[in-house]
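Usage

Read records sequentially. Each one opens with the input sequence:
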Amino acid sequence: MVLNRMAKGAKEIDIAATLEHVRDQRAGAVATKQQFQFVLSAVADEVQALLKVLPQQ
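and closes with the structure output:
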């Protein structure tokens, strides 16, 4: 969801609100500290990879 928003040009992403939405849709999703850390790490890694392939301005 975060990456789709980025692809559509979103300049700011609210990770906490996104996770809250996921929790509303799927009970038990991202329930532990370790799961939350994994999600943040995965999103950060993907954002870094996307930034590397963007044209430099």
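Summary fields computed downstream for this record:
- The mean pLDDT is 83.
- Residues 1-53 form one domain.
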